[in-house]
Write a structure and sequence with these properties.
heterodimer, A: about 220 residues, alpha+beta, two-stranded antiparallel ribbon, 4 helices, about 25% helix, B: alpha+beta, 6-stranded antiparallel sheet, 4-stranded antiparallel sheet, 21 strands
């Protein structure tokens, strides 16, 4: 049997292979070097991609099940915890639009949020949402806010002079959906209609849900 | 001095005979087993420091030709060949020595069967290494899912839009192209079916996406795109928690840059793409974990579970699911519990995690999904090994007993 050979004197027959190594040594050395080099870092790479994946539910899932329809001239930039949708617009892309979803803590949560926006422009607070323009969004009443001046975003950001804001607060169930547009007065003015269309385009969309009967 | 007959025969033996002798030899088997022991020993120690994913890749991956062990950040000056290739050599060695060269007969039948089972076990490992797919499917009670997502492997997806303005089938830059890609390397992605190409740069396996306006103090000269920059984070042991990031340049077919983008995987259960306009059309670009479409849908009808008191370790959990095939015509109910997976056409669903409902929410299940052609081979190889060894030792026992019985008679 192949494992029966136990004498140490006969364990390594490699020593008897010297003539063979003389003949094949070069080839072996080349093979070893080729093997080692093949493991080296390839550096910059190139790949051609034609493969497409079938659409699945992942492709039809949205932040907080909130689906939007943005104008083509808005460019989407990275998502953050506070900005479910985050867009840039304008020739120099100085304009920003973003959508946030915050918990609705208390009956006046929407009013507090609107007043926070006014504070960012150092404008006086309002006492009731009824003073604001209203528009149906996400099937409920949304409140539209406008402001202009120096914008103090807070959170360490530098103040932004001569800025105009369009915003909407939509209190719905236990959350408030907010949409905010910030930019130069001219830039925001040019996008006013697109902003309203965008707010109206928002919808809750949950294709993964099959039933509510089992909910506990 | 004249040569002895044996040394004459030795001289006349061909190079082929010597290669066979070495490859089938007990010596090679011993060396392989010692190397496997060393790799397992150092791998086990290193795994406690760098995590399972990196250790498996370093020691056991097919692409690992040589391994230099490290302990506590210090290099152990003992280069070891990659375990995959040691196993490949051992497999050849066992085939030649344990099946071809071995003396054949009833006395060795059990040993031959046991050798075959070990070769089968190693082949199962190789098949698994080459063709195994795995991912995770998270489903809330009352929801359905038709895809799994890789735990660790990144991919870039490029969505065109269809005529209705909805996402169309994405082009996928597969995970393998990002293997070993360093931050200072570039990956050029040619897209013959689209009017642009892409260049990936600054690829980081573990990173954080920071907004410049809020994290000025942390900015150390990193590239800023759209007001964001990527900062490298130490790679942690649990690879699935490392968040991948990179910069992406959209360029025309002549290589002129059209748009700079920044991509970051954030672990959310929905895509968070960025967009660019090319030739008047909008495209989405998303860095995510590799998405694996399933050939069926899973509806999570009910999920239940319990943790051991005072811990987050589940004592048991169960998921009642409906598997939906085709256009929803074929529906079959399954109950998946710990260690009792659902199997379907080579795909296995294990219950891997369970989460109780958040206040006002629903419980959820995480199913580990594995497609491995050699899934059941290790089990069969162990059955074969057991049979072979029982046969071998059974025959030995029988011979021992039959040789001892007559001597007792003669003593009497």
């Amino acid at each position: 049997m192949y494992f029966r050979r136990s004498s140490l004197a006969r364990v390594f027959p490699v020593a008897r292979l010297r003539p063979a190594f003389r003949r094949w040594g070069g080839f072996l050395l080349f093979s070893v070097l080729a093997g080692l080099l093949s493991g080296c870092d390839p550096g910059d790479r190139e790949v051609t991609v034609t493969g497409r994946r079938n659409l699945v539910l992942w492709d039809r899932s949205f932040p907080n099940n909130l689906k939007d329809q943005a104008p083509e001239e808005w460019r989407r930039v990275p998502w953050t915890q506070m900005r479910y949708y985050n867009y840039r617009f304008g020739d120099s892309e100085e304009g920003e639009v973003w959508v946030s979803v915050i918990p609705r803590q208390g009956a006046d949560a929407a009013l507090l949020n609107v007043n926070r926006w006014y504070n960012q422009f150092r404008l006086p607070e309002i006492v009731t949402l009824e003073d604001l323009k209203q528009e149906t969004m996400l099937g409920v009443t949304g409140y539209l806010v406008e402001a202009e001046g120096a914008y103090h975003a807070g959170m360490g950001a530098d103040p932004r002079p001569e800025t105009r804001m369009l915003a909407a607060a939509i209190p719905i169930s236990s959350i408030i959906v907010t949409i905010k547009m910030i930019g130069s007065p001219a830039g925001v003015g040019a996008q006013q209609e697109a902003f309203l269309d965008y707010c109206r385009s928002l919808e809750f969309f949950d294709e993964a849900r099959i039933s509510k009967a089992e909910d506990e | 001095m004249s040569d002895s007959p044996s040394s004459k025969a030795s001289k006349q033996r061909s190079i082929g005979w010597w290669i066979f002798r070495v490859m089938a030899g007990f010596e090679l088997a011993t060396i392989c087993l010692l190397l496997l022991f060393a790799a397992t020993f150092f791998g086990t120690l290193e795994q406690t420091q760098v995590g399972l994913y990196l250790t498996l890749q370093k020691y056991f991956d097919m692409e690992a030709l040589f391994v230099i062990p490290e302990l506590n950040g210090k290099i152990i000056p003992l280069p070891l060949p990659g375990t995959f290739w040691v196993c490949a050599v051992l497999c050849v060695n066992m085939t030649l020595g344990g099946l071809v060269r071995i003396r054949k007969g009833w006395k060795t039948a059990g040993v031959i069967i046991a050798h075959f089972s070990m070769i089968f076990l190693m082949v199962a490992g190789a098949v698994s290494q080459v063709s195994k797919k795995e991912g995770v499917m998270h489903v809330y009670q009352g929801d359905r899912s038709d895809y799994a997502k890789s735990y660790t492997e990144p991919s870039i997806e490029i969505y065109p839009y269809d005529e209705q303005g909805e996402r169309d089938k994405p082009y996928v830059v597969e995970s393998e192209h990002f293997d070993g890609l360093d931050p200072d390397e570039r990956l050029t992605i040619r897209l013959p079916e689209l009017p642009f190409d892409l260049v990936v740069s600054g690829f980081r396996r573990s990173s954080e996406l920071l907004q410049l306006s809020r994290f000025k103090e942390q900015h150390k000269g990193e590239r800023v795109v759209d007001g964001f920059f990527l900062q490298e984070r130490p790679r942690v042991q649990q690879e699935e928690t490392n968040l991948t990031g990179c910069y992406l340049t959209v360029q025309d077919k002549e290589g002129n840059a059209l748009q700079e983008l920044i991509l970051h995987y954030n672990g959310m259960p929905f895509p968070t793409p960025v967009t660019a306009m090319v030739d008047g059309k909008r495209y989405e670009f998303s860095l995510t974990r590799w998405i694996w479409p399933m050939p069926f849908e899973v509806e999570l009808d009910k999920t239940m579970g319990e943790y051991w008191p005072g811990t987050q370790d589940p004592s048991w959990f169960q998921s009642d699911i409906t598997k939906v095939d085709g256009d929803g015509d074929l529906r079959k109910k399954y109950s998946i519990v710990m260690n009792k997976p659902m199997r379907h056409e080579g795909i296995t669903l294990y219950q891997a995690s369970w989460a109780p409902p958040a206040p006002g929410g629903r419980p959820s299940s995480g199913f580990a999904i594995v497609q491995n052609p050699s899934d059941q081979w290790p089990k069969w190889s162990l059955y074969i090994a057991s049979f072979g060894l029982m046969l071998h030792f059974g025959m030995k026992l029988f011979r021992f007993l039959s040789s001892s019985l007559p001597s007792k008679k003669s003593d009497a």
